[in-house]
Structure to design on (150 residues):
């Protein structure tokens, strides 16, 4: 790896992959300030991944790119995501679903989460979220009305 010395250390952005012992391949492709990579701060909003990291005892990081340009980092990470075999699907299959807010379709069908409702109805998750949060222009999703359950 080539480290660009013309970029101040506090502005250096890293694209990295995270490897967990029980999975083959990268389980996470991250983008963070190089100084924050070791704390894995960009994984903190992913409880199942954090749990795997804590249980593993030997997580490994591979720095793939160091740059001062966030756009270059995002483009590289996107390419890496599409080109790299990932264990993310395996992680999704082995982790319990974190309970979310339940959703009810207009005909009474209840789903454990907005994502599950979107998948079951062939809808985009983002559009489902906008519909459930009553954003203008999203009166229905896939021809159905959905609402949050208390």
């Amino acid at each position: 790896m080539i480290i660009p010395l013309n970029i101040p250390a506090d502005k250096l952005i890293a694209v990295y992959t995270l490897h967990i012992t029980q999975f083959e391949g990268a389980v996470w492709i991250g983008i963070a300030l190089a100084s924050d990579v070791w704390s894995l701060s960009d994984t903190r909003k992913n409880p199942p991944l954090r749990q795997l990291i804590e249980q593993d005892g030997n997580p490994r990081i591979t720095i793939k790119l160091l740059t001062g340009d966030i756009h270059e980092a995002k483009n590289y990470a996107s390419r890496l995501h599409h080109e790299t075999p990932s264990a993310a699907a395996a992680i999704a299959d082995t982790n319990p679903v974190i309970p979310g807010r339940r959703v009810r379709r207009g005909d009474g069908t209840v789903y454990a989460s907005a994502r599950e409702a979107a998948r079951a109805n062939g809808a985009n998750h983002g559009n489902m979220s906008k519909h459930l949060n009553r954003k203008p222009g999203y009166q229905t999703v896939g021809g159905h009305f959905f609402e949050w359950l208390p």
Q: What stands out?
A: Helices lie at 47-56, 70-83, 88-94, 114-120, 125-132. The mean pLDDT is 82. Residues 9-94 form one domain. The chain is about 30% helix and 20% strand.
